[in-house]
Amino acid sequence: MHISEGILSGPVMAAGAVVSLIGITAGLKKNNYDQMVHVAILASVFFVASLIHVNIGPVSVHLILNGLVGLLLGIAAFPAILTALVLQSLFFQYGGLTALGVNTVVMAVPAVLVHYFFLPLLGRTSRLTFVAGFLAGFVSIGLSSLLLGVALWLTNEDFFKISVAIILAHVPLMIIEGIITGFCVSFLLEVYPEIIPHKKK
Amino acid sequence: MSTTTVFAHKVIVFAWVEDGRIHVQGSFGSNRPIKNCVIQVKRPGGILIHQAITDIKGLCSFDLPDHLESDLIVELNAGPGHLGQWTIPKDELIYEVSPEILEKKMIEKQALEKSPSPTRIATGIALIFGLAFVVARVKKTKCLKTS
After folding, report:
1. pLDDT tens digits for A11-52?
2. pLDDT at B114
3. Cys staple from A107: which of A66, A185, B52, B67, with CB 3.0 to 4.6 Å?
4. Nearest to B131 among A57, A83, A94 (CB)
5. Residue B7: per-residue pLDDT
6. Would you call B50 helix, strand, or coil by DSSP?
7. Contact A69, A42 (CB under 8 A)
8. Which residues of A touch B85 (CB under 8 A)?
């Protein structure tokens, strides 16, 4: 999911940087003092999750957990994901620094969308909470794959073939992330409901 | 054997000349070979001169090209957005490197393939919390000023 140096064209990288800058500014503005610890915890989760790899055929995919980060943070997922991506690039050599804007957009936009789609379902019943978490994890990876395809298409590649290949390669990851996110939000709702935005005491 | 390796979600490509053949190895690091992926050998300027597929060990080898007038760029495409690159200098194509240098480079390759150390992971997490602390302090100061 991390795009490397030398893959994207200049205009695509610039557009990604502008969109991510808007997202980061909005995220930082909306963040309040109390939420910062949650941002730090979830950014750390995102940072470390990339080290867990699953080999699927010739492709090696790793956990991303942008669905979990987005579901719990909303627009604040932008600065959290950017920080983690910078550190992943510097410490693990995942993705290129010049592609940072596009990589942030690819992972943060779906994260923010699942927040608005699935957060209202959390906490109604335990089953619905798990389903909402599963869908957040599943859909965010699907949308990220699609955005990755768009970014590559804009750099003059065959969009349809590439998008289908990327989404198919990520279907197992979509299921895995769905299950992990489902269990995580169910557990957090039980033991630490303060992390769920509308469940603050 | 120059080290212009490019990482993309850590795609590691390593190429060397031995016994008149070019050997290429691709991995995602941590002993995870890049299987059944396309290797392209190009001249500077992008002229394709050879194409091959890696085996289950992430390896492939092929004969040296007939004309050795320039460096060769070995590219490994490990899926959309994942590209690794290695440049074999012209000198190494003509004069094979000594076993000692080859061994040294293999050690360098093994170091690249290692998983990130716990120290790096811990440093990353500490930096995230440090940055969050700074942002939180700035926000608190702003809140106090406005109130």
Report:
1. 888 999 999 999 999 999 888 788 889 999 999 999 999 888
2. 73
3. A66
4. A83
5. 39
6. strand
7. yes
8. 6
Give the separation between CA A94 and CA B100, rounded to whole angstroms. 31
Q: Around B59, how many Cα atoms within 13 Å sit in the side-chain half-sphere?
A: 7
- What domains appear along chain A, each with residue ranges and CATH number? 10-199 (1.10.1760.20)
Residue pair A54/A98 in contact (Cβ under 8 Å)? The answer is: no
Backbone CA torsion sign across B26, B32, B34, B35: positive
C-beta separation of B31 from B113 below 8 A: yes
Kindly list the distances between the CA atom of residue A160 and the CA atoms of A109, A150, A155, A157, A163, in Å, as whole numbers in the listed order. Answer: 21, 9, 13, 9, 5
Query: Per the structure block, which two tokens stand in for A136?
Result: 């957040």
C-alpha to C-alpha distance for A37 and A35, rounded to whole angstroms: 6
Yes or no, beta carbons of A60 and B28 under 8 Å apart: yes
Q: Which residues of chain A have pLDDT under 70?
A: 55-60, 156-159, 198-201
pLDDT above 60: residue B6 = no
- Three-state DSSP class for A122? coil
